[in-house]
Amino acid sequence: MQVTSAVDGSRAVVRAxxxxxVATAPELRAxxxxxxxxxxxxxxxxxxxxxxxxxxxxxVLISVHKRLVESGGVVELVxxxxxxxxxxxxxxxxxxxTIHASPADATV
Length: 108
Known about the structure:
By secondary structure, the protein is an alpha/beta fold. It has helices at residues 25-37, 55-70, 82-91, and strands at 2-8, 11-20, 42-53, 74-78, 98-100. The protein has three helices and five strands.
């Protein structure tokens, strides 16, 4: 897994790549929480280059979502591939997160 970000004021765009699973979830959680601690209130997580994600990763995204919503912030996702989008649909998380087909569509 690799994670990079671009921060513009209180908006952060996080690009993850590789496999997001039980082994990499703690690193992703720490990365996202550091951004929030540094003042990001709008976070876009771009999953374009993610080949696999598991329930542990979903838990990480939910935890960041809850934390930001409590303070008036937002997390949006970029999920351009049907195989990953299906995971969010099956779990009902497509009703929790705003999901975009491309990074250009993310407006926060």
